[in-house]
User: Fold this.
Amino acid sequence: MPRISNKIAELRRVLPAGVKLVAVSKFHPLEALQEAYAAGQRRFGESRADELAAKAEAMPADVEWHFIGHLQTNKVRRVVACASVIESIDSGRLLRAVSAEAVRQGRTVGLLLQVHVAAEETKTGFTPDELLAAARVALTLPGVEVRGVMGMATNTDRTDRILADFRAIADVGRRLREIIPGAAEVSMGMSGDWPLAIGQGATIVRIGSAIFGDRQYH
Ligand SMILES: *Cc1c(COP(=O)(O)O)cnc(C)c1O
Assistant:
Protein backbone atom coordinates (compact mmCIF):
# COMPACT_ATOMS: atom_id res chain seq x y z
CA MET A 1 0.00 0.00 0.00
CA PRO A 2 2.21 2.83 -1.23
CA ARG A 3 -0.92 4.96 -0.91
CA ILE A 4 -0.21 5.96 2.70
CA SER A 5 3.31 7.23 2.06
CA ASN A 6 2.05 9.18 -0.96
CA LYS A 7 -0.64 10.85 1.12
CA ILE A 8 1.87 11.79 3.82
CA ALA A 9 4.29 13.22 1.26
CA GLU A 10 1.49 15.17 -0.39
CA LEU A 11 0.27 16.61 2.93
CA ARG A 12 3.80 17.59 3.85
CA ARG A 13 4.06 19.48 0.56
CA VAL A 14 0.87 21.46 1.08
CA LEU A 15 0.84 22.10 4.84
CA PRO A 16 2.38 25.47 5.74
CA ALA A 17 5.73 25.32 7.54
CA GLY A 18 5.16 25.19 11.29
CA VAL A 19 1.83 23.36 11.11
CA LYS A 20 2.17 19.98 12.78
CA LEU A 21 0.53 16.92 11.27
CA VAL A 22 -0.99 14.36 13.64
CA ALA A 23 -1.70 11.21 11.62
CA VAL A 24 -4.88 9.84 13.20
CA SER A 25 -4.36 6.10 13.07
CA LYS A 26 -7.25 4.93 15.26
CA PHE A 27 -8.85 1.65 14.10
CA HIS A 28 -6.06 1.11 11.55
CA PRO A 29 -3.71 -1.87 11.80
CA LEU A 30 -0.07 -1.64 12.84
CA GLU A 31 1.11 -2.13 9.24
CA ALA A 32 -0.56 1.14 8.28
CA LEU A 33 1.27 3.01 11.05
CA GLN A 34 4.52 1.34 10.08
CA GLU A 35 4.15 2.54 6.51
CA ALA A 36 3.49 6.08 7.71
CA TYR A 37 6.50 5.83 10.02
CA ALA A 38 8.69 4.65 7.15
CA ALA A 39 7.53 7.72 5.23
CA GLY A 40 8.89 9.88 8.06
CA GLN A 41 5.71 10.44 10.07
CA ARG A 42 6.39 10.63 13.82
CA ARG A 43 3.18 12.11 15.33
CA PHE A 44 0.24 9.76 15.61
CA GLY A 45 -3.21 10.24 17.11
CA GLU A 46 -5.26 7.56 18.87
CA SER A 47 -8.64 7.78 20.56
CA ARG A 48 -8.83 4.64 22.70
CA ALA A 49 -6.54 3.93 25.66
CA ASP A 50 -6.07 0.20 25.07
CA GLU A 51 -5.38 0.64 21.37
CA LEU A 52 -2.88 3.41 22.13
CA ALA A 53 -1.06 1.24 24.67
CA ALA A 54 -0.81 -1.71 22.28
CA LYS A 55 0.43 0.39 19.38
CA ALA A 56 2.88 2.36 21.53
CA GLU A 57 4.43 -0.90 22.65
CA ALA A 58 4.78 -2.15 19.07
CA MET A 59 6.02 1.05 17.41
CA PRO A 60 9.48 2.66 17.72
CA ALA A 61 10.12 4.75 20.81
CA ASP A 62 10.51 8.06 18.97
CA VAL A 63 6.83 8.23 18.02
CA GLU A 64 5.04 11.19 19.62
CA TRP A 65 1.59 9.92 20.61
CA HIS A 66 -1.35 12.28 20.84
CA PHE A 67 -4.43 11.04 22.67
CA ILE A 68 -7.49 12.60 21.02
CA GLY A 69 -10.48 10.64 22.34
CA HIS A 70 -12.77 11.04 25.31
CA LEU A 71 -10.71 9.83 28.27
CA GLN A 72 -12.31 8.10 31.23
CA THR A 73 -10.52 8.46 34.53
CA ASN A 74 -10.05 4.69 34.87
CA LYS A 75 -7.92 4.77 31.67
CA VAL A 76 -5.74 7.69 32.71
CA ARG A 77 -2.89 5.48 33.90
CA ARG A 78 -2.50 3.75 30.52
CA VAL A 79 -2.66 6.98 28.55
CA VAL A 80 -0.27 8.93 30.77
CA ALA A 81 2.23 6.09 30.39
CA CYS A 82 2.49 6.53 26.61
CA ALA A 83 1.05 9.84 25.43
CA SER A 84 3.23 12.92 24.87
CA VAL A 85 0.15 15.09 24.50
CA ILE A 86 -3.42 14.52 25.68
CA GLU A 87 -5.45 16.75 23.37
CA SER A 88 -8.84 15.97 24.83
CA ILE A 89 -8.90 17.34 28.38
CA ASP A 90 -12.60 18.12 28.82
CA SER A 91 -13.23 18.35 32.57
CA GLY A 92 -11.58 19.60 35.73
CA ARG A 93 -11.86 16.12 37.18
CA LEU A 94 -9.88 14.63 34.29
CA LEU A 95 -7.30 17.40 34.54
CA ARG A 96 -6.67 16.62 38.21
CA ALA A 97 -6.57 12.87 37.57
CA VAL A 98 -3.97 13.31 34.80
CA SER A 99 -1.86 15.56 37.00
CA ALA A 100 -1.94 13.09 39.90
CA GLU A 101 -1.05 10.16 37.64
CA ALA A 102 1.75 12.08 35.90
CA VAL A 103 3.27 12.85 39.29
CA ARG A 104 2.94 9.17 40.27
CA GLN A 105 4.74 8.13 37.07
CA GLY A 106 7.35 10.88 37.37
CA ARG A 107 6.36 12.35 34.01
CA THR A 108 5.25 15.66 32.58
CA VAL A 109 2.39 15.41 30.08
CA GLY A 110 1.50 18.04 27.51
CA LEU A 111 -2.18 18.94 27.47
CA LEU A 112 -4.58 20.65 25.16
CA LEU A 113 -7.88 21.82 26.63
CA GLN A 114 -10.79 20.79 24.43
CA VAL A 115 -13.40 23.41 23.68
CA HIS A 116 -16.91 22.56 22.53
CA VAL A 117 -18.16 24.89 19.82
CA ALA A 118 -19.86 22.52 17.36
CA ALA A 119 -23.61 22.17 17.02
CA GLU A 120 -23.62 18.48 17.94
CA GLU A 121 -24.41 17.78 21.59
CA THR A 122 -22.52 14.50 21.33
CA LYS A 123 -19.14 16.21 21.05
CA THR A 124 -17.39 16.82 24.35
CA GLY A 125 -15.38 19.74 25.67
CA PHE A 126 -15.44 22.80 27.89
CA THR A 127 -17.40 25.93 27.15
CA PRO A 128 -14.95 28.81 26.55
CA ASP A 129 -15.43 30.18 30.08
CA GLU A 130 -15.02 26.75 31.67
CA LEU A 131 -11.85 26.23 29.63
CA LEU A 132 -10.30 29.43 30.94
CA ALA A 133 -11.20 28.45 34.51
CA ALA A 134 -9.59 25.04 33.94
CA ALA A 135 -6.45 26.75 32.63
CA ARG A 136 -6.14 28.68 35.91
CA VAL A 137 -6.44 25.42 37.82
CA ALA A 138 -3.88 23.73 35.55
CA LEU A 139 -1.33 26.41 36.40
CA THR A 140 -1.38 25.19 40.00
CA LEU A 141 -1.04 21.49 39.15
CA PRO A 142 2.24 19.54 38.88
CA GLY A 143 3.05 17.08 36.10
CA VAL A 144 0.99 18.80 33.41
CA GLU A 145 1.79 21.55 30.93
CA VAL A 146 -1.08 23.22 29.05
CA ARG A 147 0.07 23.82 25.48
CA GLY A 148 -3.11 25.10 23.85
CA VAL A 149 -6.63 24.29 22.74
CA MET A 150 -8.24 21.57 20.67
CA GLY A 151 -11.61 21.64 18.99
CA MET A 152 -13.81 20.27 16.25
CA ALA A 153 -16.07 22.10 13.86
CA THR A 154 -19.67 21.11 13.26
CA ASN A 155 -20.00 18.21 10.84
CA THR A 156 -21.75 20.10 8.03
CA ASP A 157 -21.33 21.13 4.39
CA ARG A 158 -21.94 24.76 5.36
CA THR A 159 -18.58 26.47 5.03
CA ASP A 160 -19.76 29.55 6.94
CA ARG A 161 -20.62 27.43 9.97
CA ILE A 162 -17.30 25.56 9.86
CA LEU A 163 -15.39 28.82 9.57
CA ALA A 164 -17.31 30.32 12.48
CA ASP A 165 -16.49 27.28 14.62
CA PHE A 166 -12.77 27.45 13.77
CA ARG A 167 -12.76 31.19 14.49
CA ALA A 168 -14.36 30.50 17.87
CA ILE A 169 -11.74 27.85 18.71
CA ALA A 170 -8.89 30.17 17.70
CA ASP A 171 -10.44 32.94 19.79
CA VAL A 172 -10.48 30.72 22.88
CA GLY A 173 -6.82 30.02 22.14
CA ARG A 174 -6.08 33.76 22.21
CA ARG A 175 -7.89 34.12 25.55
CA LEU A 176 -6.00 31.12 26.92
CA ARG A 177 -2.69 32.81 26.07
CA GLU A 178 -3.64 35.75 28.28
CA ILE A 179 -3.49 33.24 31.15
CA ILE A 180 -0.70 30.93 29.87
CA PRO A 181 1.40 32.83 27.30
CA GLY A 182 3.23 29.69 26.14
CA ALA A 183 0.02 27.79 25.31
CA ALA A 184 0.34 28.48 21.59
CA GLU A 185 -1.08 25.34 20.01
CA VAL A 186 -4.43 25.44 18.22
CA SER A 187 -5.37 21.89 17.19
CA MET A 188 -8.23 21.96 14.70
CA GLY A 189 -8.99 20.58 11.26
CA MET A 190 -9.58 17.00 10.14
CA SER A 191 -9.62 15.26 6.75
CA GLY A 192 -12.68 17.10 5.48
CA ASP A 193 -12.02 20.60 6.75
CA TRP A 194 -8.32 21.13 7.49
CA PRO A 195 -7.68 23.80 4.80
CA LEU A 196 -10.35 25.97 6.46
CA ALA A 197 -8.72 25.38 9.86
CA ILE A 198 -5.30 26.45 8.55
CA GLY A 199 -6.88 29.65 7.30
CA GLN A 200 -8.10 30.38 10.83
CA GLY A 201 -4.75 29.76 12.51
CA ALA A 202 -4.47 26.02 13.23
CA THR A 203 -1.00 24.97 14.39
CA ILE A 204 -1.89 21.25 14.57
CA VAL A 205 -4.13 19.35 12.15
CA ARG A 206 -5.45 15.87 12.98
CA ILE A 207 -5.87 13.90 9.77
CA GLY A 208 -7.03 10.29 9.63
CA SER A 209 -9.07 9.02 6.71
CA ALA A 210 -7.35 11.27 4.14
CA ILE A 211 -4.12 9.38 4.96
CA PHE A 212 -5.23 5.89 5.94
CA GLY A 213 -8.56 5.52 4.15
CA ASP A 214 -11.88 4.61 5.73
CA ARG A 215 -11.85 3.13 9.22
CA GLN A 216 -13.20 -0.40 9.77
CA TYR A 217 -15.06 -0.15 13.07
CA HIS A 218 -15.10 -3.41 14.96
C1 LIG B 1 -11.08 10.57 14.29
C2 LIG B 1 -10.67 11.95 14.67
C3 LIG B 1 -9.96 12.78 13.78
C4 LIG B 1 -9.63 12.39 12.36
O1 LIG B 1 -10.78 12.37 11.56
P1 LIG B 1 -10.67 12.15 9.97
O2 LIG B 1 -11.95 12.71 9.47
O3 LIG B 1 -10.52 10.70 9.74
O4 LIG B 1 -9.49 12.92 9.49
C5 LIG B 1 -9.56 14.02 14.24
N1 LIG B 1 -9.84 14.44 15.49
C6 LIG B 1 -10.51 13.68 16.38
C7 LIG B 1 -10.79 14.22 17.72
C8 LIG B 1 -10.96 12.43 15.98
O5 LIG B 1 -11.65 11.69 16.88
Summary: The beta strands are 20-24, 43-46, 64-67, 85-89, 109-115, 144-151, 185-187, 204-207. The longest helix spans residues 159-179. The longest strand covers residues 144-151. The pocket of pyridoxal-5'-phosphate is lined by residues 24, 26, 47, 68-69, 152, 190-192, 206-210 (CB under 6 Å).
